[in-house]
Structure to design on (303 residues):
């Protein structure tokens, strides 16, 4: 049991580190491509990558056929709806505010789990861990981006980002509650293909087709984003399906994403360097993860 718990923690950290590296790739890609179309192409390639490690065609077709409505639901929630809300919100809200709202997603997941998963209720340790994590995200965000003075914050942008967090919580619970009749690899591969194809189809009349050629850095960014989506979402869906994993506790590890993102910025970007405010935020997040582990170990001892 202890080995299984350590493996879950390790895989959760890997998934979060992969997600944290997406911001630079998205920024590069959006310099040359429209957002919905770029996201659609990214997810199509991610789904195709996973097909190479999926079971044979007959087994894949059997699993998809038996779970078609569920696969379509996940494609709609996890790919189309969630990313559409995210992009619409980010375009309307300053970066510092959007980073703090998106960084609070573990709270929304915990709340959804509390009401819809019988054995995943909030307790004081878990609540304290989430509050520490959100405080750390806010401090890191304010350390790297000052709050906009006089900038207009669109109410609809905030609403879109909050709905993105809510959809994320619902999707996590839906995946976790599904019985083991479809493998996480097949689920992720086909849902990414369906979601990516739908986003690309919608983008053509809305955004048109690109008329310029792309530089090598665009293709490098697209390749990396395609890989990390395939790997991170597959890992996450696999962990959510484990009987011993609590949805709310797993999602608290997402507080690592802004920490890793800050470290990557310090390493890659010449105009960013460590500062005391960001380091203080990281200490708060470290405290949140320590409290989370105390909560998890207490639950294991009492079960």
């Amino acid at each position: 049991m202890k080995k299984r718990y350590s493996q879950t923690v390790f895989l959760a950290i890997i998934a979060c580190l992969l997600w944290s590296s997406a911001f630079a790739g998205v920024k590069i890609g959006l310099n040359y491509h429209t957002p919905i179309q770029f996201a659609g192409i990214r997810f199509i390639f991610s789904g195709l990558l996973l097909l190479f490690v999926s079971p044979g065609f007959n087994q894949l077709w059997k699993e998809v056929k038996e779970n078609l409505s569920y696969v379509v639901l996940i494609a709609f929630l996890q790919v189309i709806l969630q990313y559409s809300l995210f992009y619409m919100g980010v375009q309307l809200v300053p970066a510092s505010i959007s980073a703090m709202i998106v960084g609070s997603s573990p709270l929304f997941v915990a709340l959804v789990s509390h009401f819809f998963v019988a054995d995943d209720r909030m307790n004081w340790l878990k609540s304290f861990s989430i509050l520490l994590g959100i405080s750390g995200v806010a401090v890191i965000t304010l350390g790297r981006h000052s709050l906009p003075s006089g900038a207009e914050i669109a109410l609809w942008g905030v609403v879109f980002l909050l709905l993105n967090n809510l959809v994320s919580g619902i999707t996590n619970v839906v995946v976790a509650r599904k019985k083991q009749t479809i493998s996480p690899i097949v689920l992720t591969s086909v849902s990414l293909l369906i979601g990516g194809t739908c986003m690309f189809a919608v983008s053509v009349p809305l955004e048109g087709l690109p008329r310029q050629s792309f530089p090598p850095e665009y293709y490098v960014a697209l390749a990396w984003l395609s890989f990390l989506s395939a790997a991170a979402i597959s890992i996450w869906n696999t962990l959510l399906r484990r009987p011993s994993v609590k949805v709310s506790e797993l999602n608290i590890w997402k507080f690592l994403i802004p920490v890793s993102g800050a470290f990557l910025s310090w390493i890659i970007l010449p105009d960013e360097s460590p500062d005391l405010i960001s380091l203080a935020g990281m200490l708060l997040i470290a405290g949140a993860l320590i409290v989370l582990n105390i909560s998890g170990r207490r639950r294991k001892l009492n079960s």
In short: The chain has one domain: 2-302.
